[in-house]
Amino acid sequence: MQNLIAFLIKYSHWFLFILLEVIGFVLVFQYNNYQGSVWFSSANVAIGKVYEVNSKIASFFSLTEINKQLTERNVYLEQQLTKLQEQLNGKPKTVDEVRRIRQQVPPEFKIYPAKVVSNSLDKLDNLITIDKGSADGIRKDMGVVSGNGIVGVVYMVGRHYSVVIPVLNNHSNISCTIRGRGYFGYLRWTGGDPQIAYVEDIPRHARFALGMSVVTSGYSSIFPPGLMVGKILHVFNSPNGLSYRLQIKLATDFGRLRDVCVVDNSGMEERLEMLRTVQDSLRGK
Question: Can you give the residue ranges of the Rod shape-determining protein MreC beta-barrel core domain (predicted)?
């Protein structure tokens, strides 16, 4: 405290000078209109600058929160844009896919459009999951097709989802025929290239050419006849030399598979059952 008092006494003349200066400026600006207006204008400019700097500083420190809000908004808008694009692009594609399948499947067969929700290509026993189940009328052993060709056979059915054994599965075994020739064999996939499969057991006396179409034979209750399977690329002899083995390029692109239809085969099952009954009756005579 003594040091403070000594300091004030030592520099008291300076404090007195500053006080008198302040009083002088106040008197000048308060009782003179011109000087008062100059002071008022200058003060406003200075205060405005101070407010401007303060506003910029506050804005700078609030940028983090603003950026966070903008990021959240952008994510929301991206999600809305994706949904809109799916509505604009996905629905017509699905409708077009169903129309193409409808042109291939006989009119007496029902078809159930479905979406592929999971799919694999790199395994020996690949599986596909679709978003339709027993609640939608799907049953085990129904055929599954795309707009380009066959996909596989329903293997397991839940209430809202089903598992499909596709052509790209070592256990798949679908009856096929060469279009316009009547010779039939069995479609099998041996792994590797998802676009290549083989038709086994084509008779040696069969006549055909490379590039011909291979379609479903209709000899089972799974697929109606005439559904596209693929085109012949090469011809090999079977290991025992008694038949041909056809290498075909599959019509269905499993890597881009999104929309499929499940074929209701109840009508075909009824016809095959009647045929078996007639055959059994003829054998009994």
Answer: 116-263
